[in-house]
User: Fold this.
Amino acid sequence: MTRLRAQIWGGVFMTAACLAVGVPVVVVHFQGGRPASVPSGVWLAVFAAFAAAFCCTMWLMETARRPILLGTFAAQAALAPVLVLTAPASGWTPILLVFNAAIGAYLLPPRAMAGLVAANTAVVAVATALVSASPFEIGMVAALYLMLQAASVLGVHAHLRETRSRKRIAEAHARLRAASALLAEASRVEERLRIARDLHDLVGHQLTVLALELEIASHRVDGAAAEPVDRAKEVAHGLLADVRAAVGEIREGGPRLRELVEDIVADLPEPAVHLRIDSGIEVGEAHTRVLVRCVQEVVTNAIRHAGAENLWIDIGAEGDLLTFEARDDGVGARTVEVGHGLRGMAERLAALGGKVRFSGDDGFRVRAEVPAA
Assistant:
């Protein structure tokens, strides 16, 4: 949430700085001067069109389709040089070219960005030459704006690399936690079965032999000696029944769904996961594996595609059905493209007789149902 708030405020300040570039032209116009080589009304109309394209590109960067973003960026990239060249005496207008370079770094490949920066630098040099005949001043101003653009582009690229690295780390974290949880659970199940077999084969067999020996002894003794033998026989039968019950419980002991899922989402750098699991849910090993993989997939999807700050996961029961619901506060999508991960989730659920629905409205949403038995 802190990162999102910082991005919003950064966009607000950048928009305010862009709009402030037009202030000197307006002031000079109302003072009776001639701030541009074209009528002030025409210049301000072009500036308004640039500002509209700029705001659309920046504020819709994470939600609009790429062709739309490229269209609005092309408009602002074409209008900014017009504003700079028609108002060369207004020293702030070249800043618009720096804004273009910063936003273009998010959308254009490196070669295209290099061409844009070179073109912007040439525009600055021409605009400076219109108000100054000094080659030194022309070169200094052009070099200054070249460095400002380069710094903006490199800063954006560093930010993008950091973002991609953070996402890869978060994805690897979720996948590693899921694999570790399933491996630990498999080891626990194997150890539980080994203990059950040992109890049955060693203690159970020995108690069975003891019970048979006491049964034989009870038929060979009479009088006062028969009473303790009968009590010992009852104790042996009771112990044998307890051992068999313990073996059954050990074999049938279900996996720890809550602990496994909590372990997957613990300490995730992003997004913040809000988990709710009904306390009365009891699932077998196969259902647990599927639910763990579902959690892993929605977490990695929220990290990789949604850009979400929060992810809500709810595992519950409705009658004879286990339900799995997940939603995030990311960008969503008009049409959900089912990739390998979502297809694998659907296939795992279908193998247990379940079904799943995906939705991109108001963030990404998953609703799955699977028979509990």
